[in-house]
Design a protein that fits this description.
Distance between the termini: 27 Å
Helix content: 40-55%
Bound molecules: zinc ion
Low-confidence stretches: 1-33
Largest sheet: 4 strands, mixed
Number of domains: 2
Number of strands: 10
Length: 685
Amino acid sequence: MKKMISILLTFLLLAGLGACAFADETPKETGAILDGRWLNADIQGNVTEETPAELKDDFGLFVNKDWILQAQIPAGESKTGSMEDVQRTMMDRQIALMKDDSLTGHDAELVHKLYALTSDWDYRDAQGVEPAMPTIEAIQGIDSLESVTGYLCDRNNLMRFYPLTMAVSADLINPDIYITQIGTPSLMLQDSAEYTERTQAGELYYTLYEQLGTYMLTRLHYSEDEAKQVIENAFAFDALLAAHIKPTATHYQADYFTSLLNYYSPEELTALAGDFPILDMLQAFGLKVGERFLVTEPDFIAALPELYTEENVVLMRDWMALKAAYSMGTNLDRETFKQVEAISNAVMGITGETSEDDNALQIVLGLLPVPMDNLYVQAYCTEQQRQDMLDIIADVVAYYRKMLESVDWLSDATREKAVEKLDNLRVRAVYPDELGDWSDLDFAGIETGGSLLAASAAVQAYVIAIQSDKIDTTVDKDKWDQLIMRTAMVNAFYNPQDNSINILAGILNGEVYNEDMSYEQKLGGIGTVIGHEISHAFDTNGSQFDKDGALSNWWTDEDYAAFQERAAKLAAWYDGFIPWEGAAYSGQQVQTEAIADMGGMKCLLAIAAQQADFDYDAFFRQFATVWRMQALPAYLVTLVAQDTHPMRYMRVNATLAQFDDFIDFYGIQPGDGMYVAPEDRVAVW
Ligand SMILES: [Zn+2]
């Protein structure tokens, strides 16, 4: 599995969907954490004129209070903040590119063709829900196990939902080779633990599926009673799957990566799957049969024969029907689109509607990430930007090296390996040298009777074919894969599988980085982002991969035990945070990101210490400014359930409180909210 570790959460499943039916009762307006010292300033409405905001007690709120009091969440959105402002800039630029008829070449032609399919509502309304009906009717025709298999193995069916995932990525042990990974299917409630004990987040996902599912199914000609039955059956089958899938919490355990190392030959995989026709499914999906498979949860694959039975045919049929109906809501006519948006917004507490341009961009980016990204690079990226970033990265790496050399709890043997890993760090800055080539892709446009669903199927088949070609071939580590990392994404990554940091053009805007900033502000913004990403090489996950990106232990036992002890102390500290009344917080879930926040800050403070007359106030304020946010309650419920990053107010306060440079500069004393005694500090590095 290609585990990318990112500084931001851009892929939160429900981002863009719309506070929940129970938004009025949760989260409560009490965000007291750490013995009641800090307020959860991220929740919209939690901070008022009367809320105290002393520098020494709550630095994040002190810096951001004026902004919070005037912040408005845009129509159709669930949050606002510095990162969201950068996102807005990037979306506006990409919308302009998407609509620019003067652009030529194959990439531009694909984009214009898809944009027309998306934005021509007269054309879409004339089609109505017809593009969906062949899929729905084919699923309705399923009446035996043989017909389930027939449906899933027929590549003429535009949408096929398999009870497992199949993907191609670099191998964990040997990251130079591409391998096929067989994983567990995504669940409607996101986490198998939700099927035994439903949390707030699970309720939210259930409500979304139930309400959107009911609307979409009836729109696709099911009666109300039939729709109700389909949803019940679909969740029943999802629960059968969930019973054999490990809860998400296990992904945060120290042995998670080693638990994935289950290799099978095609013959062994066939034997493991029993009566479930796994290789037929794989080939119907579009992947060739490679030499070996990495099976993330063999117990799940071994259980498939008892789930894939004649007895469960009706449940499977309705599981596919609900998934199909749910996923088609934004690709049909205007009436369907508007209803789906209204239902999502009501569930998520969102007011207003997103603009037509934003909606079109989401679809175009979703289907044509590489062509769109090529247009962006050509229009906006400069060699100067890249050189600026490479200079800052070189500075941060140099100080990181000093920091590793001065850590007192590492033995020389482990220290040497850590420095070697740092010295081998691969850097991808701003944009790729070589643009992605999607010149072989085509699909029918408006002129030839195309539809969004058909275009979507064509793109999916195209991408799967590219992936299939990679199986058993050598990974080109110099390549920048825009399919995974679009240049225009507002993000930065560390990829443990090629030991690389990747700073994307999209994040270099607004409060994170702009040319008018002072040196200190640049360090407080993009500097801390870069430090954070490099720290991921040495967080609980990254530290399990070596300088070449192989999952391999380079630690002495004693040093690794010391590292784990420090990481556990950090997790325990975050366990005590209460984002709102009644909500539990998982320190283990946010551990890697919190380690990276603190490691990055330590490194940047080391750089600051070398500068004459360094403006610490500007540096700390910029850091707090980058992470300001106001968000709707339901969005934060999904965030606490899924995001591996600490909430933003914690990222500011919990990080800064670890460092003497901060505490001494502002004269913070025991008893102040921002004071953490040296013996209680939890920074791992
Ligand atoms: Zn991160």
